[in-house]
């Protein structure tokens, strides 16, 4: 299949492009490089031996339609979005404008190009604060705690409404839990601009001596060790999940939400200790106050992905910590 990947130079996007190429698909990347580097395309070529087509383009631009005019696109994986939870609280209009508009432009361009298969990058954040864990796809997913999260809720709604009147369309909504880790080559990984907000890139910079210590946000939650529980998933497993979702979209119609998680809750302290053990280093950390908006614990019910996609996470927490550290040590990444 010829697959258009929006945001294909980003963290999850680039790993997915590699797995798509490995599975024999042709890939077209559309990325405006607002939060990614052009060198990622070179690195994908080094890893796979294949250079994907690349358009440096904002998905909100009316030029997006030309990509569909110039290429026969069989399916789209839509990653392109602003994704920093905290920043979205400060800049709600930018987040709503960018994330919603890009999806609307994309759907219009897909319609013009006759493309009817879409895999959308959603998030566990759509389960909101009130559902019990583990989160299951049939629970209400209509609430979030940040403008970023609300854009995911709204786009899931937009796609559901769109499919209701386009029964020949397939939209798979992949709800990710906490992707961490990096490609084994250490050429692709999570490399946010500035000081990282997410746990693993922050740990990587502390381990590399670029930041002096980690602050664990809250040690007094009602969890076994007092720190928050999350469902960490290796980014390569997540990428493979997208390839499987694409194959599903080829043979099915309608809208389907599917969790991509490992299905287990791991505490912040567990992750820190694992990182120290497998990499043989000591991570300086302190336990600080809770971070506003954090939920104490959530993880996925991962059965639906197993059943519909024949997919499950195979990498261990050790693998995630080893690959993340290998990537953080590769100076050419900075
Ligand atoms: N944490 C720390 N110190 C840090 C950074 C994080 O202790 O410096 C803790 C957090 O408090 C949380 C855990 O590490 O308990 C994971 O935090 P992340 O920021 O890595 O991830 P979140 O679970 O907050 O966010 C993830 C996704 C978002 C999504 C959100 C809600 O990254 O895209 O889940 O589902 F919106």
Short description:
With 334 residues, this protein is an alpha/beta fold. It has helices at residues 11-22, 39-48, 64-70, 85-90, 92-113, 147-165, 199-207, 235-251, 268-279, 303-309, 317-329; strands at 2-6, 26-31, 53-56, 75-78, 117-123, 170-176, 178-180, 214-217, 229-230, 232-234, 254-260, 266-267, 285-288. Uridine-5'-diphosphate-4-deoxy-4-fluoro-alpha-D-galactose is lined by residues 83, 85, 123-125, 149, 178, 197-199, 202, 214-217, 228, 230, 268, 291, 294.
Commentary on this structure:
With 334 residues, this protein is α/β, with parallel strands linked by helices. Helix content is 40%, strand content 17%. The protein is built from 11 helices and 13 strands. The protein has helices spanning 11-22, 39-48, 64-70, 85-90, 92-113, 147-165, 199-207, 235-251, 268-279, 303-309, 317-329, and strands at residues 2-6, 26-31, 53-56, 75-78, 117-123, 170-176, 178-180, 214-217, 229-230, 232-234, 254-260, 266-267, 285-288. The strands form 4 sheets. A 7-stranded parallel beta sheet has the order 3-2-1-4-5-6-11, with helices on both faces. It has a two-stranded parallel ribbon with strand order 7-10. Strand 1 (2-6), helix 1 and strand 2 form a beta-alpha-beta unit. The longest helix is centred in the first third of the chain and has 22 residues, at 92-113. The radius of gyration is 19 Å and the shape is globular. The mean pLDDT is 96. The structure holds uridine-5'-diphosphate-4-deoxy-4-fluoro-alpha-D-galactose (UFG). The site of uridine-5'-diphosphate-4-deoxy-4-fluoro-alpha-D-galactose has 20 residues, from helix 7 and strand 8.
């Amino acid at each position: 299949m010829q697959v258009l990947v929006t945001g294909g130079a980003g963290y999850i996007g680039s790993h997915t492009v590699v797995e798509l190429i490995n599975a024999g698909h042709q890939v077209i990347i559309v990325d405006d490089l607002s939060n990614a580097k052009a060198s990622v395309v070179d690195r994908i070529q080094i890893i796979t031996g294949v250079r994907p087509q690349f358009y440096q383009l904002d998905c909100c631009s009316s030029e997006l339609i030309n990509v569909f005019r110039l290429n026969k696109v069989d399916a789209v994986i839509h990653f392109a979005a602003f994704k920093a939870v905290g920043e979205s609280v400060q800049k709600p209009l930018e987040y709503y404008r960018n994330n919603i508009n890009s999806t609307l432009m994309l759907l219009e361009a897909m319609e013009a190009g006759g493309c009817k298969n879409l895999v959308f990058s959603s998030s566990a954040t759509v389960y909101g604060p009130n559902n019990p864990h583990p989160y299951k796809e049939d629970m209400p997913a209509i609430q979030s705690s940040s403008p970023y999260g609300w854009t995911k809720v709204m786009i899931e709604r937009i796609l559901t409404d769109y499919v209701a009147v386009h029964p020949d369309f397939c939209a798979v909504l992949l709800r990710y839990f906490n992707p961490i880790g990096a490609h084994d080559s250490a050429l692709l990984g999570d490399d946010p601009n500035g000081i990282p907000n997410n746990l693993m890139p922050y740990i990587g910079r502390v381990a590399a001596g670029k930041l002096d210590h980690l602050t664990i946000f809250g040690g007094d939650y009602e969890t076994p060790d007092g720190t928050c529980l999350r469902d960490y998933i290796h980014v390569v497993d997540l990428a493979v999940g997208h390839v499987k979702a694409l194959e599903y979209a080829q043979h099915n119609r309608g809208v389907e939400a599917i969790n991509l998680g490992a299905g287990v809750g791991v505490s912040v302290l567990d992750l820190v200790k694992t990182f120290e053990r497998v990499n043989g280093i000591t991570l300086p950390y302190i336990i600080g106050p809770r971070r506003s908006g954090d939920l104490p614990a959530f993880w996925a019910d991962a059965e639906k992905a197993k059943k519909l996609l024949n997919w499950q996470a195979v990498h261990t927490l050790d693998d995630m910590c080893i690959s993340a550290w290998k990537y953080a040590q590769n100076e050419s990444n900075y």
